[in-house]
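During the no-cost extension, the postdoctoral fellow (Dr. R.K.) reprocessed legacy sequence entries with the updated structure-token encoder. One reprocessed record is reproduced below for audit purposes.
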Amino acid sequence: MAPPPDFSEKDPELVRDATQDHLQSEFQEQDPADANGSKGSSSGMLSSRTVSPTTRQRLNSAGRVHSDVGDVLARHQSVDDAASLASIDRPPSAEEKLPPAKIYPPLSFPVIALLMPASIFGVLARLGLQAITTYDGRAIFPLAWVQAAGCLIMGFALGMKEPFGRFYGPLYTAVTTGFCGSLTTFSGWQLDVFESWINATASDRDWFRDAIDGVGKSIFTLAISLSAVSFGAHLATLIVPRVPTLPPPPRRVRYALSALAVLVYAAAYPAYFRLPARFRHDATAALLFSFPGTLSRYALSVALNARLKLFPLGTFAANMLGTALLGALQALQSVQHPHPLSVDACVVLKGMADGYCGCLTTVSTFAAEVAALDGRRAWLYVGLSWVCSQILLAIVLGSSIGVGHVSRQVTCKYV
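Re-encoded structure tokens follow.
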């Protein structure tokens, strides 16, 4: 094998990229004896004689290369290691063949900072889509548009993970975890289904139509979310070869971007008090709680998603916690006795429901994980998530309604 070319007088960034390409070629070049001995093998294992120490660090404990989730979705395959599944909402790393200088730890300040404006824009997009798709005689329920849009962007971003990493890695996490995770909402989906069971809209229909409505929202949301995330990954395969390689932003631009991100979120506080009161329950209250919800979900994901083999425990925990909390907030907004809550209290509860719970739970990451798992594990994940959410809502919200102190409809007055 020819040694790596001498780049001693070249730019250090070019040297790192060339070295990475040289290491990648070691993956693809196999010893003739190994090729003859394992020609018919389907294990996908790499001979240790052909892998350098640096390259070996990119392998998991079984000796396999970590799967790229975007490519897995585009090819309708499944991941076979926990690290690949946990990488969905983390910044691009060595698995994307990035030099060390372009790799950001998951909890580094640039990554966390960009989650702030991404959360705000995700909430605004969700509330805006729900507003424009809520009208009399609609054929599609508003949350369907929200979940489809967020999952489509999520799938596209997964396919663009390597270009994101070569440009500026924290942008990937801002789009996937921040924007898409805040745009879609698992807790809102589950509450919508539960309200169909109890006919919270007081529609003129029997229990059988209530059941059909709940089942329809469950199946349709899952189907459109999985389809959208796969379609987005397919779109990325068409776009990535045509994306030019952009130079990474200089240090001063990266610092300025982080500072601007913090200022954007900080502006949500004066916006809440300065804008007219009628905007508080519609948007500004939710903006205050958006980033805390996203940060909670991201922290749970980083801490727990790789704990169990091929079961995203962090995402599951975030979705269950957010669903239970949303049920409690919904009960508080529907109190009948002894008297309804004050306007200010109702606005805060609405902001926590739309902002914190909406950002703490996510359908986009959930759909990407389901699509990346094999059939048995995917159905187990979906079934546990759906059943546990409905049980939590039945315990928290259903029992409150059954006692008689909580109405099926929201009784809060926001203005």
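The two ends are 74 Å apart (CA to CA). The chain is about 65% helix and 0% strand. The remaining legacy entries will be reprocessed before the final report is submitted.
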